[in-house]
Write a structure and sequence with these properties.
The complex is a heterodimer. Chain A contains no helices and eleven strands. Chain A is an all-beta fold. In chain A, the strands form two sheets. In chain A, strands 2, 4, 5, 9, 10 and 11 form a six-stranded mixed beta sheet that branches. In chain A, strands 1-3-8-7-6 form a five-stranded antiparallel beta sheet, with no helix packed on it. Chain A is globular, with a radius of gyration of 13 Å. The N and C termini of chain A lie far apart (about 40 Å). By secondary structure, chain B is an all-beta fold. Chain B contains no helices and eleven strands. In chain B, strands 2, 4, 5, 6, 9, 10 and 11 form a seven-stranded mixed beta sheet that branches. Chain B is globular and about 40 Å long. The model of chain B has no long low-confidence stretch (mean pLDDT about 90). The chains are: A mainly beta, B mainly beta. At the A-B interface, strand 4, strand 5 and strand 9 of A face strand 5, strand 9 and strand 10 of B.
Chain lengths: ~110, ~120
């Protein structure tokens, strides 16, 4: 069974710090990796996707992928209180009809 | 970015009635749409995958006769909850994907909160 694991948290960081969110996955055939943010009572919104090993940066967000270790992470620099949300890691495997397997999410709290 | 809408955003109905939820991709063609359900403080649960012009594929444990899905066009999918009961009360979220490697990103609609009395 394909699994995506995340630390449920809560992860608490002070405003301005770097928040580091981690995710591991079990299926070595996974090809696409996504980070979504979900505020309480709202639907998920896409933050970033990454397909290749290494780092991908977009503004204050950096996604890191290491396929050998089956590990993907999200770094949030200069964390703001508005970043407080649940962060969902999602993985798409080849042949899955584009279905995503989601982790249960990590709750991030950024303290002013 | 890609925009997905859902209608209605909130619905309250009586037990035994049917409720239809629409999901539209506004600025792209969605070859595949997905329907999820989320109970409070729980993770997303995929209910079904629908491809335009073909029957939906339901996840194990999801009753296809209770949750009717139609994907009539590349921009519209509907979920009908038939004979709704209070235990069907949940947050229903659709997502849409244009499909294909490097274009398999799912974009989520804002969700529909269903309350069955």
């Amino acid at each position: 069974q394909k699994e995506v694991e995340q630390n449920s948290g809560p992860l608490s960081v002070p405003e301005g710090a770097i928040a580091s969110l981690n995710c591991t996955y079990s299926d070595r055939g996974s090809q696409s990796f996504f980070w979504y943010r979900q505020y309480s009572g709202k639907s998920p919104e896409l933050i970033m996707f990454i397909y290749s090993n290494g780092d991908k940066e977009d503004g204050r967000f950096t996604a890191q992928l290491n396929k050998a270790s089956q590990y993907v992470s999200l770094l949030i620099r200069d964390s703001q209180p508005s970043d407080s949300a649940t962060y969902l890691c999602a993985v798409n495997a080849q042949g899955s009809n584009y279905k995503l397997t989601f982790g249960k999410g990590t709750l991030l709290t950024v303290n002013p | 970015g890609a925009v997905v809408s859902q209608h209605p955003s909130r619905v309250i109905c009586k037990s035994g009635t049917s409720v239809k939820i629409e999901c539209r991709s506004l600025d792209f063609q969605a070859t595949t749409m997905f329907w999820y359900r989320q109970f409070p403080k729980q993770s997303l649960m995929l209910m079904a995958t629908s491809n335009e012009g073909s029957k939906a594929t339901y996840e194990q444990g999801v009753e296809k006769d209770k949750f009717l899905i139609n994907h009539a066009s590349l921009t519209l999918s509907t979920l009908t909850v038939t004979s709704a009961h209070p235990e069907d009360s949940s947050f229903y979220i659709c997502s849409a994907s244009s499909g294909g490697i490097s274009t398999d990103t799912q974009y989520f609609g804002p969700g529909t909160r269903l309350t069955v009395l």
